[in-house]
Structure formats: C-alpha cells, structure tokens
Amino acid sequence: MIHSVVFDVGETLLDDTREFGAWADWMGVPRHTFSAVLGAVTAAGHNNAMTFEVLQPGFNLDVERQRREDAGAGEQIDEDDLYDDVRPALTDLRDAGLWVGVAGNQTSKAAGLLRALSLPVDAIATSGQWGVAKPDPGFFAKVADLAPGDPDGVLYVGDHRDNDVVPARRAGLKPVLIRRGPWGYLWSGDPAVQRDAEWVIDSLTELPALISGRTGRG
C-alpha cells in the first residue's frame, strides 16, 4: 500500500538547464562544452561532479559555489525552473490522500528557495540540511524517517540510476525513474533500472493512476 511519495529535485522537479548554464558561464567555458562533458561523464557512470574536475582540474565546488554567492551570481530557483507537470502531479497526489515530500542532493539554500515556491507538499529537505547525500544509505534512512508509515509504502521518484533507483530499493523504498534529463533518458532501459524500479514514467502526472491501479510490484 503506497502512502507517501518523495521526489528528487534536479531533473525530477526542476529543469537544470539554467543552473548548468550558470556554471558554464562562471567557469568561462562554452555551454555546449559543459553539456558535452557532463554527458560524457554521465555515460561513463561517474558522478556528475566530475564534470568540474575535467574542465578545471583541482576545481573546488564548495569554494566556487560560495564565490558565486558572494558575487551575486548564486543559485536561483523560480517558477520557470519547474517542469510543467510538477504542480498538477503534486496536487493530484495530495488530493488522493497521499503524503508528498521533496528530498534531494541540494544545498541548504535550495531548500529555502523551494519552500518559497509554495509547492503543494508536506515537507522539503535537502542533503545540505541533513549532512548526508545520495547515494549514501544514510540519506535514504532520512527519507524513511521523513515520510510517515513503513518504508515499503514510500515511493521515491528520481531520474538517476545510481543515486535514486538502486539505493532507494536497497533501503526498502519503492523507486520510480522519471525518463527526462540526461540521466533519465540514458538509463531508462538499463538492466539495474528495469530490475529495481517500480515504474519508469515519462511524466509525473502518470503517478496518481499508477498508484491507484497498483500495477507495480507488491
């Protein structure tokens, strides 16, 4: 019985195009180059943070993130960054009586920016707040604590094989892969995703009917 749905953030709720473009501009590399290296890193199965190291060896992401903030070019999240299906899907899930949460590998600042959007959710948390990031099992233990009820009644929706689907299943949650963003498209047919994902979807608006019909695993 599914009682809760928790969503990843980047390329699940948010289109990361603007943020990736901002990083390319900050590093002084063409946006196409940044995207191409990100794609190569992704296809090789590496953490996307390696993109920065490839482009600038010795790049310190935490230091540069603070430098961006200090320069007035820091992280931004607004309504235009949301995918079009986000508000309708979240609203329908809550109207169906489900508990809805957001938890992803984001900064503490991002949590505040997301809350400012007044999304129809019950809770928002980020790895920056928790001090533990995906795919660490501790992150998914936090997700299980955040959502009410037993972990096996929690859907965790994300776009990433290694950060979302596989570790969520290992933690006893029910993972769903959203087929968008570079990771979602690349890994939607991956054997590990096919093995571990409850469902592979193209839109978040598919979730209410799937949950109602309960056509996934028991």
Mind explaining what this structure looks like?
- By secondary structure, the protein is of the alpha/beta class.
- The chain is built from twelve helices and six strands.
- It has helices at residues 17-27, 31-43, 50-55, 61-70, 86-95, 108-115, 127-130, 137-146, 161-170, 181-187, 191-196, 207-213, and strands spanning 4-7, 99-104, 123-126, 154-158, 174-178, 199-201.
- The chain has a six-stranded parallel sheet, with helices on both faces.
- Helix 9 links the parallel strand 4 and strand 5 (174-178).
- Helix 1 (17-27) packs across helix 2.
- The radius of gyration is 17 Å and the shape is globular.
- The model has no long low-confidence stretch (mean pLDDT 94).
